[in-house]
Write a structure and sequence with these properties.
The protein has 14 helices and 14 strands. By secondary structure, the protein is an alpha/beta fold. The chain folds into 2 domains: 144 residues, Alpha-Beta Complex (Aspartate Aminotransferase, domain 1), CATH 3.90.1150; 234 residues, Type I PLP-dependent aspartate aminotransferase-like (Major domain) (Aspartate Aminotransferase, domain 2, 3-Layer(aba) Sandwich). The strands form 3 sheets. An 8-stranded mixed β-sheet has the order 2-9-8-7-6-3-4-5, sandwiched between helices. The radius of gyration is 21 Å and the shape is globular. The termini are far apart.
Length: 401
């Protein structure tokens, strides 16, 4: 008999992972994967970068590197973050294997079995899985269009047994809800938390992907607004900006936390890929990042607009959905406690796939909602896919009557 660990026993399968095989079928229109379209990657730019590297640097790219990261990339990334107002001189920066590893590392250094972690509902499935792998007790707090609901959060913070150790939020084009925290909500949240003995884990994987320059100020990280009393661990990634295949993210944290995180990362993978760090470094220092982001913002804004129009024209009455101002996602709320799993089955049969709501519920229960990703799907396929899902919804609504 296999005697799995308690943490392994608590793991649950990710609906996203199971659906990815469907997303690769040539006949399937996929709104499932939260990823850029394959034809959007800066392949030509990366070819040019690699071909111009010196032999010495190419050899370095094939070698192990420091656990904290490839030094030239660390320096370039510090400059990049400094321009955003980030406190890089009073915090330590660590390159991670995607931002999910950064989340996992922070969880590892703080969470013991049954420690309480507060997080949004819905929340990023990767973070949910990471916290559950350390046997955390998850305390989900609902969100509205402006962010986490502070009255609910305050009540959760007042619980003493056990007192929450960690608050995890994704304030900038939230995965899966697509919302953007407003300035007042962030200010009020910081004011609330500074009185608490808690660590804030601020996940910012999409903040650069605003559609309108007027919203740029709203993507200002909370870590730039913090007086220093509240320990904030800030994570981000190149995955949504350049490509997830780089497997590069970063963690900016207070020194006493970062030191523990570096030790934890050593036990995970010793170091992130030096090869892709070399490429990312050149992408930054050659000023290719901003030009590429500007191009992507236009493309994603157009895809979001196309999907919103398709939803408006095809969905039955009784549904509501978020109207993203950036990022990759639209969150759809269904009427009458409908089960999105049944709708998914019908949609798959007719050639469209999305992610069901319970995937993003920290408790795995709430399923009268679904996530649509517009980032990966060509514009010409979006309306067709939405029509398939709308038809599945209509059939399910008739069945329920």
């Amino acid at each position: 008999m296999l005697r799995f660990s308690a943490s392994a026993a608590s793991m649950r399968s990710s609906a996203i992972r199971e659906l990815m095989s469907l997303a690769t079928r040539p006949d399937m229109i996929s709104f499932a994967g939260g990823m850029p379209g394959n034809n959007l990657f800066p392949v030509a730019e990366m070819d040019e970068i690699y071909n111009k590297l010196s032999l010495e640097v190419k050899r370095i790219g094939f070698q192990y590197g420091p656990t904290t990261g490839y030094p030239p990339l660390l320096e370039a990334l510090q400059d990049y973050l400094r321009q955003k107002g980030m406190p890089v001189d009073s915090n330590n920066l660590i390159i991670t294997t995607g931002s999910l590893q950064a989340i996992n590392i922070v969880a590892k250094v703080f969470i013991d079995p049954n420690d309480r972690v507060i997080l949004e509902n819905p929340a990023f499935i990767g973070a949910i899985s990471a916290f559950k792998s350390y046997q955390a007790a998850l305390d989900p707090i609902p969100i509205d269009d402006d962010g986490i609901i502070l009255t609910e959060l305050q009540a959760a913070l007042q619980k003493k047994k056990p007192k929450a150790k960690l608050l995890y939020i994704t304030p900038y084009f939230h995965n899966p809800a697509g919302i953007l925290y407003n300035a007042q909500r962030k200010t009020d949240l910081l004011e609330l938390l500074k009185k608490e003995d808690i660590v804030l884990l601020e996940d910012d994987a999409y903040g650069e992907l605003y559609f309108n320059a007027a919203d740029k100020e709203l993507t200002r990280p909370m870590k730039t607004m913090n007086s220093g009393a509240l320990p904030i661990c800030y994570t981000s990634s190149f995955s949504k900006y350049i490509g997830p295949g780089l497997r590069l993210g970063w963690l900016l944290a207070p020194p006493e936390i970062a030191e523990k995180c570096e030790l934890a990362k050593q036990s995970f993978d010793a170091c992130s890929s030096t090869f892709t760090q070399v490429l990312a470094h050149e992408f930054l220092v050659q000023n290719k990042m901003q030009a590429y982001l500007e191009k992507m913002r236009v493309i994603y804004a157009r895809r979001a607009h196309t999907m919103l129009n398709a939803l408006q024209e095809n969905m039955p009455e009784g549904l509501t959905w978020t109207k993203p101002r950036g990022g990759f996602y639209i969150w759809v709320s269904l009427p009458d406690k409908m089960d999105s799993t049944e709708i998914l089955k019908k949609s798959i049969a007719n050639g469209a796939v999305f992610v069901i709501g319970s995937t993003f519920d920290p408790l795995g229960v709430k399923n009268d909602c679904l996530r649509l990703a517009f980032s990966h799907t060509p514009e010409e396929q979006i309306e067709k896919g939405i029509k398939i899902i709308a038809e599945a919804l209509k059939q399910q609504m008739v069945k329920k009557k």
